[in-house]
Design goal:
Layout lengths: L22 H17 L3 H17 L3 H17 L3 H17 L3 H17 L3 H18 L2 H18 L2 H17 L3 H18 L2 H19 L2 H18 L2 H17 L3 H17 L3 H17 L4 H18 L4 H12 L17
Helix pairs in contact: 1-2, 2-3, 2-4, 3-4, 4-5, 4-6, 5-6, 6-7, 6-8, 7-8, 8-9, 8-10, 9-10, 10-11, 10-12, 11-12, 12-13, 12-14, 13-14, 14-15, 15-16
Length: 355
């Protein structure tokens, strides 16, 4: 039903690159082709090579380099009057904005990308851009608004046999089920996405699916060792492909698993590691979530309650500034869990929320 996964963001002279190509290899090849295109005065090719450069930088956590690269790609595409290439550059910029926690900018750039993709007749970039909009809303916790879009994109991906996008949509829907406490459905969807990714040789998608499975195995079943084994398998892929952001989220999830198991000192070390990684790549959402896990671990290890309460209050404000609608709920859950007065922060207590 599904063919081998491919990477449509590797274009022009870079179409031979695999979805599993090391990001350092992608960056080297993309930079070489970009310089050749600029020397030859071929802005269209420069735009498409520059897209790969931008994406490699973004996934490596080099946000400033990624920002310069996607903008240069857009300028080259506009010079070449290449509408689909303009759309791809905007998609890259919107994805970077979401990674940096700039959700309003992300939505604007991704909507522009979707519109240009439709105008330029490129259904792939249109689909990727709509998927980006759906993921942005999901990350912010606006499940009602984006749930239908996720389902629509999943149906389209299944119909076209696009393994990579099917995996993405399944994982997004699974995450929403997990965050609302429907663990059985979440696990089934994560498991299906892992199977599809494995058959399609989509190692990145497989790593994210394993991470989701590990989360559910930990929170639903209390099976710490199996969860850690799944995370170790995913981590090997993240390291091989140099997936900096995915690796940091893997470490944060390992902290979650250890925390649930009552192994607070080990959890603290993992949260500290993830926090440093997120700070290095300027990813505020991951940074705030790691801080929350760290604050909870320190509280369990005997930190002063007043210091913990102050930290949680500060985190509530930080998460809200980023634009996460479920921020108050996450912090409220921490107040309840630790038995600390919430000073008016808490709302209704949901199932524990994760990413």
């Amino acid at each position: 039903m599904y063919g081998k996964a491919f990477a449509p963001e590797y274009q022009g002279a870079l179409t031979t690159l695999s979805v599993n190509s090391s990001l350092t290899d992608v960056l080297a090849a993309g930079t070489e082709q970009l310089r050749a295109a600029e020397r030859a005065g071929k802005p269209g090719e420069a735009a498409r090579s520059g897209l790969a450069v931008a994406e490699a930088h973004r996934r490596l956590g080099r946000v400033e380099d990624a920002d310069r690269a996607w903008k240069a790609s857009y300028r080259a595409a506009r010079q070449a009057s290449d509408v689909p290439a303009m759309a791809w550059a905007l998609w890259s910029g919107g994805t970077l904005a979401r990674q940096r926690g700039a959700f309003r900018l992300a939505r604007r750039l991704l909507q522009l990308a979707a519109d240009l993709g439709e105008r330029g007749g490129d259904i792939v970039v249109r689909g990727y851009s709509l998927a980006g909009l759906a993921e942005t809303g999901r990350i912010q916790g606006d499940y009602e608004a984006v749930g239908r879009l996720h389902e629509q994109l999943l149906a389209e991906a299944r119909r076209r046999g696009e393994a990579r996008h099917t995996v993405w949509a399944l994982e997004g829907i699974a995450q929403m089920h997990r965050n609302t406490g429907d663990y059985d459905t979440a696990y089934a969807l994560f498991e299906e996405s892992a199977e599809i990714a494995a058959r399609a040789d989509d190692r990145r998608g497989h790593a994210w699916a394993l991470r989701g499975m590990a989360d559910v195995v930990s929170v639903r079943d209390g099976d710490t060792e199996r969860a850690l084994a799944l995370l170790s398998e995913a981590e090997a892929t993240c390291r091989a492909m140099r997936l900096s952001s995915a690796l940091a989220y893997n470490h944060k999830m390992r902290g979650n698993v250890l925390y649930r198991a009552g192994r607070y000192a080990e959890a603290r070390a993992l949260y500290e590691q993830a926090l440093a990684e997120f700070r290095e790549m300027s990813e505020p959402r991951g940074e705030a979530l790691s801080r929350l896990g760290l604050a909870k671990s320190l509280a369990r290890l005997g930190r002063d309650r007043a210091e913990t309460a102050a930290e949680l209050a500060e985190l509530a404000g930080a998460l809200e500034r980023i634009g996460l609608q479920h921020a108050r709920k996450m912090v409220a859950h921490a107040y309840d869990e630790l038995g600390i007065p919430d000073a008016g922060v808490a709302e209704a207590r949901p199932a524990e929320v994760t990413r």
